[in-house]
Amino acid sequence: MANAMIWVLLVIVLLVGIDKIITVANIKAVEKNFPEIKPYSIEKNPIARYFFEKCGLLLGTIFYFFLSVITFIIALLLLEWTLKLFGVVNATSISLYIMIILYCMVIGNNLFFMLKFSRIVS
């Protein structure tokens, strides 16, 4: 059981880490290719934007990374709890798969904007 929790936490950290790396790449691409735009204004999440503006890009990313991991875990537990209420047999695995699919959609969206801001995709 403990070994499985380590793997779940590793997957969560990996997904959130990829997302935050892409976010930093987006902001750096805007700074380079669009100097007339405030770089943090591209971040649509107001909490992340607040961390970036108050703490800078590096420290803000670190704070927001930990907040994102905690939020991911809370959402995973709430989804698992909801599935168990409906009597789903393998609620933990199903909720993890759902969260991974949803977060991969977020990563895909951020990747598209990274390519757009770096002027690879018009």
Structure description:
This protein is mainly alpha-helical and 122 residues long. The mean pLDDT is 91. The radius of gyration is 17 Å and the shape is elongated. The protein has one domain. The chain has helices spanning 2-33, 46-55, 57-85, 91-117.
Strand-helix topology:
Layout lengths: L1 H32 L12 H10 L1 H29 L5 H27 L5
Q: How many individual helices?
A: 4
Portion in beta strands = under 5%
> What is the tally of beta strands?
0
Work out the oligomeric state of the chains in this entry.
Answer: single chain
Q: Average the pLDDT over all residues and give the rounded result.
A: 91
Largest sheet: none
Estimated structural class:
mainly alpha
Shape: elongated
What Rg do the Cα atoms give?
Answer: 17 Å
The stretches of 5 or more residues where confidence is low (pLDDT under 50) are none
Percent helix, as a range, is over 70%
CA distance, first residue to last residue: 47 Å
Secondary-structure element order, N to C: HHHH
Tally the structural domains.
1
Short structural description:
This protein has 122 residues and is mainly alpha-helical. The chain has one domain. The protein has 4 helices and no strands.
